[in-house]
Prior knowledge:
Shape: globular
Number of domains: 3
CATH topology of the largest domain: Elongation Factor Tu (Ef-tu), domain 3
Distance between the termini: 38 Å
Order of helices and strands: HEHEHEHEEEEEEEEEEHEEH
GO molecular function, one term: GTPase activity
Pfam family, one: GTP_EFTU
Oligomer: single chain
Radius of gyration: 21 Å
Keywords: GTP-binding, Hydrolase, Nucleotide-binding
Organism: marine metagenome
Family: Belongs to the TRAFAC class translation factor GTPase superfamily. Classic translation factor GTPase family. LepA subfamily.
Amino acid sequence: xxxxxxxxxxxxxxxxxxxxxxxxxxxxxxxxxxxxxxxxxxxxxxxxxxxxxxxxxxxxxxxxxxxxxxxxxxxxxxxxxxxxxxxxxxxxxxxxxxxxxxxxxxxxxxxxxxxxxxxxxxxxxxxxxxxxxxxxxxxxxxxxxxxxxxxxxxxxxxxxxxxxxxxxxxxxxxxxxxxxxxxxxxxxxxxxxxxxxxxxxxxxxxxxxxxxxxxxxxxxxxxxxxxxxxxxxxxxxxxxxxxxxxxxxxxxxxxxxxxxxxxxxxxxxxxxxxxxxxxxxxxxxx
Length: 286
């Protein structure tokens, strides 16, 4: 059984990448054969190495006319100090190298090991809001097992909730009886607000709690921007839409503010400029 987690590559989301990496035993480093090693490639390799993960380099898009496979291999060795012979050549579009990638995962990445903690330890590496089920939390179980009906404590939020449902992805979510140590999946519980779930938090048994898994940090905005409605009558509508965006993006922060020139609006915090652009586009489109 293989559990694969896709992470964003952009530097704005480096904390989410680090939490996803901490849920894994290895990482596929996908490099574009046409563009080669980029700045965020180096940053993500450093994150993976800091977690002591096995790294499998994959050179993708080898089918493109302007692909420079030899040049990309050279960059892997010179910039990242990764042997070029370890690279798997692939094309996701043409289906080239897919079996080689899967075989490399089986051969090179170690199996999950239990932490030896006294009770349940599960890492939260992502979450989203579902209008019917509330907050759906993505987790990796390090020790013990998770099943519906038990209570779990979120150590950093200091909240105890009852698990309603657990499941995995294949690739769509499907319900399961339990999640055992080494497995990834999702859980739903009596959690109504995404602000109650912190990425990197540890879930454990409230009766006999284990130590928190290392690496947790509070997400703090790095870029701030004021957002004001053109028509002051749209203020409440803008406020409602910002609240909906925050339901699916716990890293997005906003608070009301006022300006003599612009009237009533909101001071918003983002992880970076790309995050800001994504929120702006979603406000326009949705």
